[in-house]
Amino acid sequence: MKILSYNPGHDGSVVYLNDGKLVFSIEAEKNSNYRYSPISTPDILRAMGELDEIPDVISVGGWWPRDHHEYLYGSNVHAPYRGETLKDIIVEQSKLLGKEIHYFSSSHERSHLLCAIGMSELPKGTPCYALIWEGEIGAFYEIDSELNIFHISDVLTQVGNRYGLFYGLADPTFPIDGEYPRNQDAGKLMALASFSNRNNPTNEEKKILEFLLDGPYRKLSDYENIFASAHYHVGVDNSEFCNFAGIFSDRIFNIFYQFAKDNLKKKLPLVIAGGCGLNCDWNSKWKETGLFTEIFVPPVANDSGSAIGTAIDAQFYFTGNPKIDWDVYSGKYFDANCNINLDEYDILEATNEKVAEFLADDLILAWINGKYEIGPRALGNRSIIAAPFKESTKTRLNIIKQREQFRPIAPVCLEEDASRWFGCEKPSPYMLYTYVANTDALAAVTHVNKTARIQTVSSSSNKNLYNLLKAFKNRTGYGVLCNTSLNFNGKGFINKLDDLSLYTIQHKLDGFVVNEKIYILKSSTYYQNHLKKN
Known about the structure:
Blueprint: E1 2-6, E2 13-18, E3 21-27, H1 41-48, E4 57-61, H2 68-73, E5 90-96, E6 99-106, H3 108-119, E7 128-133, E8 138-143, E9 149-154, H4 159-170, H5 185-193, H6 203-213, H7 239-263, E10 270-273, H8 280-289, E11 295-296, H9 306-319, E12 345-349, H10 352-360, E13 365-368, E14 382-386, H11 391-400, E15 410-414, H12 418-422, E16 434-436, E17 451-453, E18 455-457, H13 463-476, E19 480-485, H14 497-507, E20 511-514, E21 517-521, H15 525-533
Parallel strand pairs: 1-4, 4-6, 7-10, 10-11, 13-20, 15-18
Antiparallel strand pairs: 1-2, 2-3, 5-6, 7-8, 8-9, 12-21, 13-14, 14-19, 15-19, 16-17, 20-21
Helix pairs in contact: 3-9, 4-5, 4-7, 5-7, 10-13
């Protein structure tokens, strides 16, 4: 069965399943479009251009009502946002280019659940618990061997919105009467929370915690005496606010942990979905609780995986199969059919040894390989890479990416070396957990609290990156590199050669590697120093 699927909200994507295999997931924000973009008509048409034949099913994720009429009577276009059972699905016969097809839509809530279940390695029919925590939903579920989904309880509604809103308390650029947080604020708060060095809130902080976490979600301006708060617009890097950020983050996790400890007694696996599933600290804490036999978080835990989840739901409805074969590198190939000014570059053959030589001499390079990654994390196919040893490298990377200096840089590491440097005993291929660095030598990829959001690489998960890491290890003794996403600030991954060249020149990268060639910017000071040295 061939299924073409898309989600109608933010973090839009168009997905194609063919007989249980993920063929592609084309995300609206990728190719230097704005982060969190919804799908547009051109996105749909470009995705259809990738198809060899007309699909059997068009599936659409659920979303909020578009107007008051839909609020009162429901939609005949897409299923609602909430709803864990199949009672709210839409199934109709339709036509596409003259072919009879099925039209399917199920809730946004189900899209998260089916994405996590269908992408996990749990065998079909394995009972499990599920956690969705995202902007709107914060709830636990139990799923039986027939994939019947039982909603256990909402634990904390709008958990993601509450989390992101906290960042606005200290940020002078956030309007105090803003109804919802900005999409990017939750990820920044995750970085700030690691700077916390105390566990006990002050009396005033207790009142803010009660306001933010007890009762309904509210705007910051609804808090009495908000302007008198010690944290009001003090700046997000204020040390006392950073302390409070860690306390706040821990308090949210503990709300869910305490519920799970009291109510989830069956010692089942736990699958996690929703944007909060990208919080590496929380994912690691779930592993440490010992409440579950195993934990699975998909690399598309946020809404970038929603279309995949709805496609899996449609597949399950029509065939009874809720599992898919997938690869994290299921985006589009890099578009090198563009003209750039080659006079700007020295161009060399891209041997791993030569790239490792440049990296060891402190050059920072863009690394392009195969199809781009699905989900928001760069995992070695649309990455900026650098040597991991110096604090100054982290500083320079954050300048290149035009972002705050409190943001950490993640390490990519040979799978066989992950235990030695980070205490990581099992593969961690999707950068979804934190580990503690065992050495002071890797300053560029070690956060302020000694943690690292590691990606492990094997020869089977990403052969080209693995071979580069081996070459870098042969030269330096460390099979570790800095790895951060290749994108303009506020945009998705770069996927065209002209954008890549523009970024390299404007943001002062030293060069890039693509299609077995190294393009080194002649004007690079680091390159000139390399030439003198060698």
